[in-house]
Amino acid sequence: MAIGMKMGGFYSNTALGESTLPPQITNLNLSYSYTADTVIKVDGSFNNVPDEHKKYLKDFVITYKPNEIPSYPDDGTQIVISDISNSVITFSLSISNVHDGAIYGFRVFPRNHEDMYQTINDAKNNVKTITASKISSINSSTWEQISKIAKSGQAANYWSIGDTKEVEINGAVKNVNFSGRYYCFILGFNHNETIEGKGIHFQFGKTALKGGKDIAYCSPEYGNTWRPNGKFVMNSYNSNDNGWSQCGMRTAVCQQFYDALPVDLKNVIINCKKYTDNKGGGTTSPQNVTMTTDKIFLLSEFEILGTQNVAHPSERNYQKQYSYYQMGNSRTKYNNSSSNSPVKWWTRCPIFGGVNGYVYVDEGGNTLKCANSVSEFGFAPAFAV
Question: What is the pLDDT of residues 48-62, one digit of tens each?
Answer without folding.
Answer: 999 999 999 999 999
